């Protein structure tokens, strides 16, 4: 257990409880930490007291104060360790420290502060995956990692379920003059960059973090995405059959996205999937990365999540929702093309069919109709595949109508030169899907707004699975291994 927080408060420091005074003290205190970091042998002992007081001065402390206080405490108590079990123990201590300090904070801030914890766990997993996981000691390491990951996921679930995400203070107070990239240095070695602190995100996601510096919600979504991917990578070592394995991963992914109800997580996943490779190459083989991409395509394209309904996402601006919708449209197109190129025509058809009857398609058409008088018969003649809709939107752009406020091509380069695959009518009319390749989505789910949970129950019933939680199924370890 992490030691209790040290109380540095005394009567001479009562004036810091004034928010303006504490803000005025925060900026020079951060500068003092940065200056100390550049020394050959930095000593932070005299700065810990300052940041403890700054952290205690507000009911909902600035992220900067907790971020730096926990970093200084962690540095003072944890010297670099070679033993992997000691490093897991250090990660547990840091999690306890961060969760204790962020208890009074908003939900997004509490999640965002977990970034250094996730990095520590990631480093352990990378090292363990490069060893023989059949060895007794490595089994123990993985067991401890999975336990900690379970605790972290539980913490995030509680944050997402008990507090409203979206209505938050800025991540970085504009008056402090410090960006997230600058603040990340307190958790990094001298030769590291911000990407080392967030190792499971893509370049585009990091770019979004820079573009939206000050958005605590986006950083929280990035951290959730890292935990989400790390958990999936751990599950990739389950050793079950390929078909069963893909089903379990898909079920867990959809159930988790449903549980988190976090639009920023979904946005981060979209941005990752629009890049050529997922940021898991240090953890998974090429074959497993391909499988994970298919699972994430299913989870992001084929499922209708109620939290993506613009009427429910009241804390998200209309412009932001349009950007997310644009990325969803592009991803649907790329998923269809991906399966076509890999010879899985049936799955490609299922994606096109799901898209044509989706709420996303209806919403985009509605946005177009709000700008331009369009006859339904004219719209149907254009086709209802993702590619057909993109071509239509690009044609409207050439006429001066920017449905999304910006050109689609500004966000992602597209190849729409290939003709759409036209399957036999019997395949398009059939409501039956190949259980071995894809899962069928009942379109009635959109009307009932119980789509996510209903799908989960129907999927279990169809596959003949029991009612135990998916997470327990994925994490169950061989009893013989535990007894060793």
TrEMBL record:
Compositional bias ranges of the Acidic residues kind: 467-484
Record region (Disordered): 421-484
Biased composition (Basic and acidic residues): 442-466
UniProt-recorded name of the protein: Uncharacterized protein
């Amino acid at each position: 257990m992490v030691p209790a927080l040290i109380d540095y408060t005394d009567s001479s420091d009562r004036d810091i409880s004034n928010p303006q005074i504490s803000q005025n003290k925060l900026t020079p205190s951060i500068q003092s930490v940065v200056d100390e970091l550049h020394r050959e042998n930095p000593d932070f002992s005299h700065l810990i007291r300052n940041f403890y007081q700054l952290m205690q001065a507000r009911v909902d402390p600035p992220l900067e104060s907790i971020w730096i206080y926990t970093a200084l405490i962690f540095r003072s108590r944890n010297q670099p360790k070679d033993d992997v079990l000691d490093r897991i123990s250090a990660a547990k201590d840091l999690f306890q420290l961060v969760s204790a300090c962020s208890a009074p904070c908003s939900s997004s801030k509490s999640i965002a502060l977990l970034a250094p914890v996730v990095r520590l766990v990631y480093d352990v997993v990378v090292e363990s995956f490069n060893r023989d996981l059949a060895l007794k000691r490595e089994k123990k390491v993985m067991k401890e990692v999975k336990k900690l990951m379970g605790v972290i996921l539980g913490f995030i679930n509680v944050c997402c379920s008990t507090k409203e995400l979206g209505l938050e203070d800025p991540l970085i107070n504009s008056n402090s003059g410090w960006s997230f990239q600058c603040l990340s240095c307190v958790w990094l070695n001298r030769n590291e960059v911000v990407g080392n602190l967030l190792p499971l995100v893509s370049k585009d996601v990091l770019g979004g973090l820079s573009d939206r510096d000050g958005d605590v919600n986006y950083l929280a979504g990035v951290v959730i995405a890292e935990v989400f991917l790390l958990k999936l990578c751990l599950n990739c070592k389950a050793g079950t059959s390929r078909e069963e394995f893909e089903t379990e991963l898909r079920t867990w992914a959809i159930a988790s996205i449903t549980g988190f109800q976090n639009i920023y997580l979904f946005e981060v996943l979209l941005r990752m999937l629009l890049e050529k490779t997922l940021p898991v190459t240090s953890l998974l083989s090429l074959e497993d990365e391909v499988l994970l991409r298919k699972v994430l395509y299913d989870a992001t394209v084929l499922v209708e999540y109620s939290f993506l309904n613009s009427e429910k996402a009241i804390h998200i601006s209309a412009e932001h929702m349009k950007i997310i919708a644009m990325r969803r449209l592009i991803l649907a197109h790329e998923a269809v093309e991906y399966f076509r190129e890999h010879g899985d025509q049936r799955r490609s058809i299922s994606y096109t069919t799901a898209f044509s009857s989706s709420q996303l398609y209806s919403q985009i058409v509605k946005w177009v109709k709000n700008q331009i008088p369009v006859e339904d018969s004219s719209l149907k003649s254009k086709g209802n595949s993702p590619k057909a809709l993109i071509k239509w939107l690009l044609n409207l752009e050439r006429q001066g109508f920017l449905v999304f406020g910006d050109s689609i091509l500004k966000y992602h380069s597209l190849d729409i030169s290939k003709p759409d695959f036209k399957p036999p009518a019997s395949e398009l009319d059939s409501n039956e899907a190949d259980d071995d390749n894809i899962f069928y989505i009942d379109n009635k789910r959109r009307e009932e707004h119980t789509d996510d949970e209903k799908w989960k129950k129907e999927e279990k019933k169809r596959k003949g699975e029991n009612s135990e939680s998916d997470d327990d199924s994925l994490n169950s370890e061989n009893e013989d291994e535990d007894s060793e």
